[in-house]
Amino acid sequence: MNDSTASTGTRVLGSITLVGFAALLLFGLVLSPADAAQGELVRMMYVHVPTAFVAFGAFTVTVAASVAYLLRRTEWWDLVAHGSAEIGAVLLAATLVSGMLWGRPTWGVYWTWDARLTTTALLFVLVLGYLAVRRLPLDRDKRAGLAAVVGLLLLPTTIVCHYATTWWRTLHQGPTIARADPQIDGLLLFTLVLGLAVFALLYVWMMVHRFRVLYLEHRVEDLGLDTAIAERRREASGALATPRPATGPVT
Amino acid sequence: MWRDAALVAGKDLRLELRSRVAINQVAPFALLVLVLFAFALDPDRGILARATAGLYWVAVLFSAVLAVQRAFAVEVADGVRDGLRLSGLDPAGIFVGKVAALAAQLLVLEALLGLGVVVFYDADVAGMLLLVPTCLAATLGVAAAGSLYGILSAGLRVKETILPLLLLPVVAPVLVAATQAFEAGLSGPTSDGWRWLGLLIVFAAAYVGLGLTTFDLLLEES
Question: ipTM exceeding 0.90?
Answer without folding.
Answer: no
